Amino acid sequence: MRALFLAAALLAPSAAAALELPARAEALLERGRPYVEVRPDADGSSGMIRAAIDVAAPEAVVWAVMTDCDLAPTMVANLKSCRILERDPQGRWDIREEVTRPIFTPSVRTVYREDFEPTHRMTFHRTDGDLKVLEGEWRLEPHGEAVRVTYEARVAAPFAVPGWVARLAMRRDVPQALLALRREALARAGQASPQGSP
What we know:
It is a single chain. With about 200 residues, this protein is an alpha+beta fold. The chain has helices spanning about 25-30, 60-65, 70-75, 165-190; strands at about 35-40, 45-55, 80-85, 95-100, 110-115, 120-130, 135-145, 145-155. The chain has one domain (about 5-190): START domain (Alpha-D-Glucose-1,6-Bisphosphate, Chain A, domain 4, 2-Layer Sandwich). Strands 1-2-8-7-6-5-4-3 form an eight-stranded antiparallel β-sheet. It is globular and about 40 Å long.
């Protein structure tokens, strides 16, 4: 599974260190909720997304769900297709094409390369397609009896979108994608979501 206006380009930052989360993020995660922060980039032409969720499933299972291109359209809002164009035989990287169809906008084609450090880290960056900017990172780290999944990305849409509209869409779509990731990982691990959690 892998966008300022496009959560599908998620389902998808570049720092080597673990994402440091504010206290309010930790409070949300402790309650079983995803954390998402979306803000304008300094130059105003792109946006920054930071997100996290805790998943009580084995790291290898969470990794398998995250990297399953066939599954991505069922987990990410407005993602119509995902296909692997090229793949390293040793599994160190692949190049993917995703087509997104947000409501009231034209379809957006994104081609990006993912570099893998199974089962801990995945970086990605745009190689072709409509997005002006797409670069980021997923990380999986042990967190108590769960795996903490963090996501950080910088994205610029291919067309003019008011900043508040883009941030509103991300604040809606990114948590939904993270919750879908958790549901699928728990299902594959043969577990049910904890009572009261989404």
